[in-house]
Amino acid sequence: MPADFGQGPPKVVLVGRINVGKSTLFNRLIERRAALVSSIPGTTRDRKENVCEWRGLPFILVDTGGVEAPSHKPKKPKSPTKPPQEIADLSQLITAQTERAIKEASLVLLVTNAHDGALPQDKRWAEVLRGKKTTIIVVNKVDNSARATAVSEFYKLGLGEPQPVSATNGRGTGDLLDLIVTILKKQDHTSKIKTSKDAERPITLAILGQPNSGKSTLLNALLQEERVIVSPIPHTTREPQDIPFTFAEQELLLIDTAGIRRKSHVDAGVERQGVSASLNTVGRADVVILVIDALRGPTIQDQKLARYIVDHGKGLILAINKWDLIADKTAQTMKIVTRHLRDLLPGLDWVPIIFISAKKNQRLKEMLELALGAKTSGQMSMSEEDLMNFLKIVVKKHRPTKAGGVRHPKILSLKQVHAEPPRFEVTALGELHPSYLKFLENRLREHFGFTGTPIAITLKTRRKRTVK
After folding, report:
1. Residue ranges per domain, the chain?
2. How many other CB atoms are there within 10 angstroms of residue 41's CB atom?
3. pLDDT exceeds cutoff 50 at 402
4. Which three-class secondary structure state does DSSP give residue 181?
5. 323 is in an annotated binding site
6. Cα 46 from Cα 415, distance rounded (Å)
7. List of residues 6+ apart from 76 with CB closer than 8 A
8. Is 216 annotated as a binding residue?
9. Has 386 been labeled as part of a binding site?
């Protein structure tokens, strides 16, 4: 995606009531499955953004949660039974996210569907948007010619010609994209945009962790806005959120993810989809910030997540969040927690640990600096000459340990065979003991400054020729 948008590409926002197919349409228009799709009402909660490009014009497509049309008038309850307060609060947060997205929009797509027809909720949405935002009314679920006859009903919403589409099979989406680009060009956004050809890929940072460890609070603190919903209700974040961000003149892509519980505790359906999508973000990330709740303390699940990240060859930072809530801290408290983490994660002593408070903006800058350092370390490439000079120094101080046999093995060469993550190949006469390979890894980190990135060393053995 573009790393420098100048003043930013225009935003095209999908709005509408619950379960009209906004997320399916979003996925169809960006040509990949980025938003969770489910028949369960309210699956989408946070705004989800992705860069879309059509006929040379990039724009940001925004998916929002299904809500009733925003209104400033107090509503009377339909029944004396009120929903639980936390559910009502969450609904208000989703509505606030949608209102903020509309405010930032250059164009709004009001998504309805032919199966249900024009309902009162659609009419309320039309009243809110009419005359305030340029709006296209999109009639989804027009999957066949029989459904096409239902489109004319939507003229009465007073938003111009309805655009029939089928998000499921793609019918009409090309025409919709053509119309979007035509409208945006009339608004003259083209001079404000640098295309993807002019831009470099941003560094991708994924924020991972267990439910309610403060991942969304951390993201909002970094962005300095209420970009994602923060709630004490577990699993409020249901799907990964890709958000462009700039730090120290470096373009980043931040990914907020759903909280990951132990597999046996994960509910079927939407939560399982969200956890699967969260784990899949590790593959897209350059560096992962694993957020650990200081009040709960590091757990076996944190250990498993850290191992998963490292096994996928990604840079890793451990962020101990909510540190401000730890009472009666002393100069030794950080050391005790650090020692416990090191014991829980043997072999990962190269992973930086930082104690933060997302709520109070404590040490967030230092955390990002560590993440960028991990990315730089992962990209480092050593010349064979530098590695051979390093090898001479190391072998002189500590002779290779034999894994078996009588003689000490002899190391012939050390070379780097890969970057991101760095991988090295040692060629030796005879077997090297695994502890010596670990010793070499530690000395490589110490000598060249590999911090926050996994490195691997493979052994290539040769047998000494014997003269008959």
Report:
1. 11-196, 205-377, 384-462
2. 10
3. yes
4. helix
5. yes
6. 46
7. none
8. yes
9. no
Asked whether residue 132 is marked as a ligand-binding residue, the answer is no
20 is annotated as contributing to ligand binding: yes
389 is in an annotated binding site: no
pTM, two decimals, is 0.63
Query: Is 17 labeled as ligand-binding?
Result: yes
| Buried residues in 290-314 as b, exposed as e (16+ CB within 10 A) | bbbbbeeebeebbeebbebbbeebb
β-strand pairing of 287-293 with 203-209? parallel
Percentage with pLDDT > 90 across the chain: 47
For the structural domain made of 11-196, what CATH number should be given?
3.40.50.300
- Looking at residue 300, its amino acid is I
The answer to whether 106 is annotated as binding is: no
Per-residue CA distances from 245 to 51, 150, 224, 225 (Å): 14, 43, 11, 12
Q: Is 257 annotated as a binding residue?
A: yes
CATH architecture of 384-462: 2-Layer Sandwich (3.30)
Residue 16 assigned ligand-binding role = yes
Q: Evaluate whether the domain defined by 205-377 bears CATH number 3.40.50.300.
A: yes
**Both tokens assigned to 201:** 């890929």
CA 120 to chain CA centroid, nearest Å: 36
324 appears as a binding residue in the annotation: yes
SS3 state of residue 52:
strand
Alpha-carbon distances, residue 212 vs 264, 308, 340 (angstroms): 18, 20, 21
Is 140 assigned to a binding site?
yes
Q: How far apart are CA 306 and CA 278, in angstroms?
A: 14
3-7, 280-284, 464-468: least confidently modelled range: 3-7
286 is in an annotated binding site: no
Half-sphere exposure of 143 (CA within 13 A, CB side): 7
64 is annotated as contributing to ligand binding: yes
Q: Does residue 259 have a known ligand-binding role?
A: yes
Q: Is 283 annotated as a binding residue?
A: no
Say whether 65 counts as a known binding-site residue. yes
**Residue 40 annotated as part of some ligand binding site:** no
Beta bridge partners of 12: 61, 107
- Annotated binding residue 178: no
> What are the φ and ψ backbone dihedral angles of 61, each rounded to 5 degrees?
-95, 130
144 is in an annotated binding site: no
292 is in an annotated binding site: no
Do the annotations mark residue 215 as ligand-binding?
Answer: yes
Annotated binding-site residue? 75: no
Can you tell me whether residue 393 is helix, strand or coil? helix
The whole-angstrom separation of Cα 468 and Cα 4 is 68
pLDDT tens-digit map of 45-98:
456 788 888 888 889 899 887 566 655 444 444 444 444 544 444 346 556 777
- The verdict on whether residue 18 carries a ligand-binding annotation is yes
Identical fold at 11-196 and 205-377? yes
Residue 6 tokens read as: 């100048």
